[in-house]
Specification:
With 402 residues, this protein is α/β, with parallel strands linked by helices. The protein folds into two domains: 9-264, 3-Layer(aba) Sandwich (Aspartate Aminotransferase, domain 2); 267-399, Aspartate Aminotransferase, domain 1 (Alpha-Beta Complex). The protein has helices at 9-12, 17-23, 49-56, 71-84, 95-104, 121-133, 146-152, 175-184, 197-200, 234-248, 254-264, 267-286, 303-309, 324-334, 364-369, 386-399; strands spanning 88-92, 112-116, 137-141, 157-163, 188-192, 210-214, 228-232, 291-293, 316-320, 339-340, 350-352, 376-380. The protein has a seven-stranded mixed β-sheet with strand order 1-7-6-5-4-2-3, with helices on both faces. The protein has a five-stranded mixed β-sheet with strand order 8-9-12-11-10. The radius of gyration is 21 Å and the shape is globular. The chain starts with 8 loop residues before the first helix and ends with a helix.
Amino acid sequence: MKDRTGKDRNITSNWAKQTQMVRAGSMRSNFDEMSEALFLTSGFAYETAEEAEARFDGRAEGFTYSRQTNPTVAMFEERMALLEGAEVGRATATGMAAMTASLLSCLRAGDHVVGARALFGSCRWLMDELLPRYGIETTVIDGRSLDAWRSAVRPNTKVFFLETPANPTLEIVDLRAVADIAHENDAKLVVDNVFATPVLQRPLELGADVVCYSTTKHIDGQGRCLGGIVLCDKKFDEDYLYPFYRHTGCAMSPFNAWVMLKGMETLGLRVHAMCDGAEIVAAAMAKRVKDVRHPELATFKQRDLAMSQMDRGGTMVVCELSGGREQAFAFLNALELIDISNNLGDSRSIATHPWSTTHKALAEEKRLELGITPGLLRISIGLEDPADLVDDISNALDIAGL
């Protein structure tokens, strides 16, 4: 079977994941370059008018316009699709463009969406603000409760939307069970898989219909470019996603796709090294802070569920300081190695105060409903030596009075 890149999927799909992250989807021009070529072109030429017509109506292979397809972007999409186990990938300009496209492409006025309460702040805004503006009904529930999913279903329910582990609280949702409930009710399950990454969790294998990423995070992995991607089967793409993608212009730029391709070559190595560091940091912090969360800690309430659907516990460590905002800020300001920022998945470790940054746009009562308090901190573990990270955190805890 030939895909958009001209590669034989029967060969590349049999490669190990690490091999796919380095080589899958690659195309070479007549120059036989080793690194993927960067096609900085808005349009493409045709030998004849008949060829142009054939490409536009789908009878001929080839590219037409970079808002729709581009060789560099197509290579990234194919590599991600193979890694995730999807038939199709559509790369977008940002992670939120991916989340928005995955929902708006398949919904219309009168439809209903059930969403887990614990979502990234902007994803929660889609549920609470954007979708209702267009006549799409939404219900937000505690995603950990299977009864809540069942009870929220209506005759017009079309989509279940969730993130697991959730940003920033690390709430875990049972993907297999929720997928079964969605399909029993003819609904699609859309999953934001940013925290887990495709290295540690592959929701399509667990029953999800659509998986979305902010590729800005671990997939780039070095804080360079914005990007997103939606991964799905061919039917969802043909019926919903591609028409929306083509006509609304949410495509990723070729340059950013090239950067993402370079990031993918080391994605598996980086994520596993970051997981190693996160486990060490979480264990050290748990000796001094009462509420420390990481899915591989014995004290993590949803540990068994997390480890049943994830290969490892991930790169994020979350803690809640009893002294609230004042103590959280004292801790952040005392850090000397770890940066204060609102990104994650970077090769550099980053500490974030979600209450005042990533989730600040949500009303206070909604933040509290999500479990986001003024004392909550999210630490994205990078590639520094874990001993240095532990020393930096220990010193900051001393200064913050812990």
